[in-house]
Amino acid sequence: MRNAIPRAIPPAILGAILCTFAAMEAQSQSDPSRSPNQSDRETNPTRPVPTPMAPEVAERLRRFRETPTDPSMSASTMTASARPSKLYSSQHGPIEVIVRRADPSATLSLFLIDRSGEVLGIAKGVQGRVDLVEAITATASLQQSAWLQLMQDDRPVGPPIVIQPLREPPPVRTARALRPDKVTSYTRIVGWGDRPLDADDTTIDEARKSWIAGDPPVNSGFRTYVDMDVIVRTDHGEILVALAPDEAPSTAWNFRTLARDGFYDRGGFHRVVPSDRDGHPFVIQGGDPTLTGNGGPGFALALEPSALAHDYGVISMARADEPHSAGSQFFFALGREGTARLDGQYCAFGYAVSGARTIDSIAATPIAIVSEGRPEKVPAILAMRLVEAPARMPGFDRRDDRIKPLAKAGDPPPTIR
Predict the structure, then answer these.
(1) What is the pLDDT of residues 294-340, one digit of tens each?
(2) pLDDT at residue number 100
(3) Which residues pair with 354 in a beta bridge?
(4) Reported pTM
């Protein structure tokens, strides 16, 4: 799957997207409610261009996605490229990408696409050095990461570029709580900034009165880089991980960097908990170079308010009781029933798009010390490496490609199967 050549957007659908975008731009420019000096950069940064998702169009998109690439496509079609000119840019820009084309007659466009596949803006007829602040006005006011995809005629070319605004996470709000054993206490995340994690939780109403407002979020600039997936190669097989910089940008970047630079190589999954006390699938945990559960990279990360649910195959950061104590240790969730309670308490930053059998095989490892999840033989992480992520397509949410459990709900945990 990771080596598949991106497929073409049908001309009729691409034309509909372009026409819709042009119509919305014209309407916004003629809207009398807008003040004369209000620039496009000050409008809602997530002002999407709706993709044509009527049932019949959605079905055509689905069939298109499953259709192999036309083998007659010339080699020059795939030699156009877009790369960021540098990793960091200031909040005022320029945010530059370098667009190269091999065929002088080809038409190149840049699509700015959010996680769900909504098109935030299009720059047509691009080549050379392109300033995204000028070419796609929605770029400067992004509040979370989006993807920039190069299109040649009606075909996506190469991997997308992540455009990440540099924003500090809001202050984390905590309270002491008891674990299910009703004896052990822990630090529970109850809110971010002035927003409670659970709006219906009346137990924190009094505590909210003492919350001191943090500094307002500030965009300090942008991090711009080619999107990459991470291959986790183990002695049980491989897992391909897609990162989610839209949910946890700094955490995803940290994992990607450690994986690229060899930190995880020759490590292992030192903690395997195939099921919790209620018999629900739980987690497999790795990322500690000492394999003791106490090791790390020598620094700690600020906890980010990821809303990515801990479903099967989602990868998240392990940490100690202190919220900002994650570093390198991570875990894969084995099932929603056991890991739903981790939502909001731990920072999920990606999801597996292949490797379900590998995850289940690791989870089936015989356990030596059940109370610690200590396996008899630690499943080894042989190496991790980065590979280019597939093209981002208008109308598609890549999270739909997440792996699904191989076992049905209610089946016994992997150690018993």
Answers:
(1) 999 999 999 999 999 999 999 999 999 999 999 999 999 999 999 99
(2) 93
(3) 240
(4) 0.82
| Tokens coding 169 | 């996470």
φ, ψ (nearest 5 deg) of residue 320: -85, -170
Residue 51 CA to residue 20 CA, distance in Å, equals: 8
Chain centre to alpha carbon of residue 222: 17
The CATH classification number of 227-401 equals 2.40.100.10
The continuous run of DSSP H or E covering 276 comes out as none
Residue 139, classed as helix, strand or coil, is: helix
Nearest CA to 68 out of 147, 1, 150 is that of: 1
Closest by CA position to 82, among listed 227, 230, 251, 289: 227
Instruction: Say if residues 97 and 81 touch (Cβ distance below 8 Å).
Output: no
Backbone angles phi, psi at 140, to 5 degrees: -65, -25
Please give the single-letter amino acid code of residue 296.
G
The CA distance from 75 to 88, in Å, is 32
Q: Show me where the domains of the chain are located.
A: 11-167, 172-216, 227-401
Q: How many CA atoms lie within 13 A of 157 on its CB side?
A: 26
Which among 416, 412, 395 is positioned nearest to 48, based on CA atoms?
Answer: 395
